[in-house]
TrEMBL record:
Residue ranges constituting the RING-type domain according to the UniProt record: 18-57
A single GO cellular-component term on record: PcG protein complex
Sequence segments annotated as region (Disordered): 102-131
Top-level taxonomy: Eukaryota, Metazoa, Ecdysozoa, Arthropoda, Hexapoda
A GO MF label: zinc ion binding
The protein's name: Polycomb group RING finger protein 3
Sorted UniProt keywords: Metal-binding, Nucleus, Repressor, Transcription, Transcription regulation, Zinc, Zinc-finger
Subcellular location(s) per record: Nucleus
InterPro entries, per the entry: PcG_RING_finger, RAWUL, Znf_RING, Znf_RING/FYVE/PHD, Znf_RING_CS
A Pfam family that the UniProt record links to this protein: zf-C3HC4_2
Biased composition (Basic and acidic residues): 119-131
Length: 225
């Protein structure tokens, strides 16, 4: 007979809490250089003034540390499974945040009727791959370079969990005729270069929270710094 061993949550707290705010991880984000994990909002705020990991002080990148952090979906799923009601409470807090500012919560915005062909998944893939039940974000993609074509349809609607890398591949396919050319595309918000692992939800909350939808992003040819 196998005996189940119960473990108190507090014995795991050191592994599932943010070392910056000391709370449970929300939008768990990992520094790719050292693999330390923090709440995404905590880490981004720290990196606005610093370029080092808050835990080990390793230099993440001299000039663009935000491009070297990555959303850790596995860790976040673990935290939500271990901590009762954390995900529910976080969703309620998010709705209250938007309510206090008189803005619609992205989770509660109904989908537009009749999505454009460009928004549909490519043939040959299962519907389950496209996160149709996820929170959705309306995005406007504007070209700010005369060296690239303008998209025929600038407005798209996609999962809030989609990343900037997904958009780079989308733009590359449409304007460079090849998804593999995504490295030649930069995506910006308010003239700020966005890291490839930023989710659209994160960009919306941190760069667009006080502005009206859609989330407006710009694309341009890559500029090496």
């Amino acid at each position: 007979m196998i005996m189940e061993r119960k473990i108190k949550l507090k014995t795991l707290n050191n592994h599932i809490t943010c070392k910056i705010c000391r709370g449970y991880l929300i939008d768990a984000t990992t520094v790719t250089e050292c693999l330390h994990t923090f709440c995404k909002s905590c880490l981004v705020k720290h990196l606005e003034e610093n370029n080092t990991c808050p835990t080990c002080n390793i230099v993440i990148h001299q000039s663009h540390p935000l491009q070297y952090i990555s959303f850790d979906r596995t860790m976040q799923d673990i935290v939500y499974k271990l901590v009762p009601d954390l995900q529910k409470d976080e969703i309620n807090r998010e709705r209250e945040f938007y309510r206090q500012r008189g803005l619609p919560c992205p989770k509660d915005i109904p989908p537009n009727p009749g999505e454009a062909d460009e928004d549909k998944p490519p043939e040959g893939h299962g519907e389950s791959d496209y996160h149709r039940q996820d929170e959705q974000v309306n995005v406007c993609l504007e070209c700010n370079s005369s060296n690239l074509k303008t998209l025929k349809r600038r407005f798209i609607r996609c999962s809030a969990q989609a990343t900037i890398l997904h958009l780079k591949k989308f733009v590359a396919k449409k304007v460079l005729n090849g998804m593999e050319k995504y490295r030649d595309i930069d995506i910006l918000c308010n003239d700020e270069l966005l890291g490839k692992d930023h989710t659209l939800k994160f960009v919306y909350v941190t760069r667009w929270r006080f502005q009206n939808p859609p989330l407006t992003l710009q694309y341009r040819p890559r500029i090496d710094i």
